[in-house]
Design a protein that fits this description.
Elements (H helix, E strand, L loop, with lengths): L3 H5 L7 H15 L10 H15 L2 H8 L51 H9 L1 H8 L22 E7 L1 H6 L3 E4 L5 E4 L10 E4 L13 E7 L6 E3 L2 E9 H6 L1 E5 L6 E5 L8 E4 L11 E2 L2 E2 L4 E8 L5 H6 L16
Parallel strand pairs: 1-5, 7-13
Antiparallel strand pairs: 2-3, 4-5, 6-7, 8-9, 10-13, 11-12
Helix pairs in contact: 2-3, 5-6
């Protein structure tokens, strides 16, 4: 696997937000459902996902940056830390000065590749050394063997989950059918947004090292009159001139269903009314009655004049509004 920074196209100094943004962009471009004519899309999607998994984990990212693990998250050197001290490391030197012994020399820390132990033992111990040479060579690393390479897990399976705007806003559980035909209930994360990636552990293809994961990309649908603004939901609510002048109680839609909204007498077009707790689930919010805290719904009042203005003109015959609403513009 190539360098995860190169895979995501970000520098090593990239922030968490930069890494997340790059991943979401690539995930949308490479998702297999959008690349059905490209047989390599699924593999590229998996590579991008694995790169993001490593870099989004602070501890593992730090280990990779220090060279302790490779791009797959495996130890970069199972003997790391055993050969770094002078006098003991493979290919190292004992001391730093010229000559031999302490303070200098070229024994290479008695590494097996630098000293012919057979010749050394032959001169010192004769046939006994030859007998020892015929024995299997001792395990390097003070009796430790490198761990066997980890078995590869099965490939991940990518899914695309279309979620209606109102369902995503309220954080309602979704149903998704897996590749094996089983349908499961999926809990949306608080603050879910279009492009959010969710991991279903062990729901991928089987492999010698275990099952891969299911990777679900959430696609939040648009809405004809609701629009998201951070944790809040905005909408424009038309009211009649009569309702604005005299005041009224009108029905107002929310993602949880219609509620009654009070319009005060003399309400102007552009007035914003707030419906608390009727907005989007907050990603970092607290629980309220066991459910994620939500933002608000902001309702902008729009006064809608009647299609037939003749009766209104008759009623306004001879009346002139003396207000000067544009004075604040200096006009």
């Amino acid at each position: 696997m190539r360098d995860p920074y190169i895979t995501l196209g970000v520098p090593r100094t990239a922030s968490e937000a930069d890494i997340k943004s790059a991943y979401r962009k690539l995930a949308k471009e490479l998702h297999p459902d959008r690349n059905k004519d490209n047989p390599n899309a699924a593999e590229r999607f998996s590579v991008v996902t694995r790169a993001y998994d490593l870099l989004s984990d602070k501890a593992r990212r730090a280990q990779f940056d220090r060279g302790e693990i490779d791009a797959e998250g495996n130890p970069a050197n199972p003997f790391a830390g055993m050969g770094g001290r002078p006098g003991y490391g493979r290919g190292g030197t004992y001391g730093a000065g010229p000559g031999g012994g302490p303070g200098g020399g070229d024994f290479g820390g008695f590494g097996a590749e630098d000293v012919d132990l057979g010749d050394l033992f032959e001169g010192l111990f004769g046939s006994r050394a030859r007998q020892q040479q015929q024995q299997p060579p001792p395990r390097r690393g003070f009796g430790r063997q490198p761990p066997p390479p980890p078995q590869r897990r099965g490939a991940d399976i990518q899914y695309r989950l279309a979620v209606p705007f109102v369902e995503a806003a309220a954080g309602r559980d979704q149903r998704i059918t897996l590749a094996d035909g089983k349908a499961i209930s999926l809990k949306l994360p608080a603050g879910v947004e279009d492009g959010t990636m969710m991991r279903l552990k062990d729901k991928g293809h089987p492999g010698p090292g275990g099952n891969g994961d299911g990777i679900v990309m959430v696609e939040v649908g648009s809405h004809p009159f609701f629009r998201r603004e951070g944790d809040n939901i905005r909408m424009d609510l038309p009211v009649t001139l009569d309702e604005a002048v005299r005041g009224a109680k009108v029905k107002c839609p929310t993602v949880d269903g219609a509620v009654m909204l009070t319009i005060k007498p003399g309400t102007s077009s552009g007035t914003v009314l707030r419906l608390g707790g009727k907005g989007w689930t907050k990603k970092a919010g607290k629980l309220v009655d066991g459910k994620p805290e939500r933002g608000d719904q902001l309702v902008t009042i729009e006064i809608q004049l009647p299609a037939d203005l003749a009766p209104l003109e008759q009623r306004l015959e001879g009346w002139v509004d003396t207000a000067r609403p544009r004075d604040r513009f200096g006009l």
